[in-house]
Each structure stands twice: as structure tokens, then as C-alpha cells.
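Morning - zinc ion inputs below, output right after.
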Amino acid sequence: MVNLSEMSWIDVQDYLQNNDTAILPIGSIEQHGPHAPIGTDFFIAEAASKKVGDNTNILVLPIIPISVSEHHRQFTGTLWVEPSIFRSYIKSIILSAASHGLKKFVIINGHGGNTPSLLEISEDLRRHNEIFVCIITAFPPKLDGHAGKDETSIILYLKPELINEDKIIDSVQNKYLGSISFTKAQRIDPAEFGWDTIDLSESGVYGGAGKIIRTTEATVDRGEEIFNKHIKDISEFLIKIKNIKIDELLPKKHK
Ligand SMILES: [Zn+2]
């Protein structure tokens, strides 16, 4: 058993005799199209962290449910916190965990919108607190889009009762913002800008300018295959993090 919330303080003390690594799962509560639950990223981060914890015997901290999702604000039910509050909250949690002896943290992050904030925390804690924080996405790399075939397949595998199959549709992401064309998922050629999901898609499903997102092709089998492959890859990486000494992961001293 490696879920912190299910352990006694004596259990945690025993764990810390020989270990200084923990997993911190972070989810989000944001729309995932007309067919998938608002907690999609939460469920994926939670399931990934539990499985990886079981595979590696690394302590799993409780999942943080709500994060940086304001760009989904026009879709009912989405919740978010300001990035500055998110950063200070996550940093405090890590510092509290570190006060007991943990030194290496792997964030299993269910939501791409959190990544810039998490990198900022990682830099800060590594430079100023001698704490190593790395960030891994809970979902496999190269998904076909937000609430598309791949993500929907994973939820069909993890929580089939939460997918409304009658509401699954194929969608096409918008090609233009005004008269300027989109490139990739969220850029207007050639610039980044502060987009909201509604700029890209009425349904909330998106994944590339003008691209057809074939959510109707989602299957349980695909979800099982891509999710478990990713879990295997993450678990192998986490064993390396677990076994490496913290000193090897910290910055060198000033010249
Ligand atoms: Zn998602």
C-alpha cells in the first residue's frame, strides 16, 4: 500500500527510512466535449498514479483536483484557479511533504494547461530548496486531440459508465480566428496568443487546425493498449528516479 491518505504516520515514517521519492497526481475539472466527463483529466491522472505507485512502490500523494483551466470557461461546469494561486498551493504542498524527508517528486499531470506553472515550480524548488520535481503527462504522448479518439478511448477503458456514447461525434477544429488562419492546435500563424477553447471549437473537442477529430473511432481496446503502454514507460522511468541519489539531480555549485 503506497497511498499516503490510506497509511498511518508510522507507515509513512517506515517508508521514509529507505525512500525519498513521491508521486503527486494533478487533475483538472474541465469540459471534455459533449460525451466525456468533466473529470476526464482527473480520472486519468488518478488511475495512472495508482498503477504506477503499485508498479514501483513509490508513495502516492493525494490527487489535486482543480487546476489551470480557465481557457475552458465558456463551457458549463469547468472549474479553475488562477495560475499564481495554483503555483503557490502546489509549492506549499511539496514543501510540506519535503519537511518529512521527501526530496524527489514526480508530478503525474493530467492537464497540459498546468505545464508552464509546474515548470516554474520545478525551477524554483530545484534552485532554492534542493528539491527535485519532474513533470510527466498522465496521458500518453501524441494524443489526437482534446476529448478526441485517444482520450475518449482511455475513459472508455477506465470509466466506461461515464461516456455518453449517444453524444460522441466527429468534429472539425476551426480554421480561422477572424481572417487569420490557425496553425497546429492553438496558434495563429505564426504567433502564440491567449486562446480560449471556444475559439477553436463549439463542441469543446479540438486537436489541430482544420483537422477532423474522429472521436467516433474510440474503443475500449485502444484505450487499454495506449494507457497501459504509457504506464509501463512511466514506471520504468520512475524506478530510475527512485534509485538515483538526489545530489546527482541538483544544480552544480557556483564557480
Ligand atoms: Zn483531457
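Note: Strands lie at 21-26, 59-60, 104-109, 132-137, 171-172, 176-177, 180-183, 187-188, 212-213.

O.
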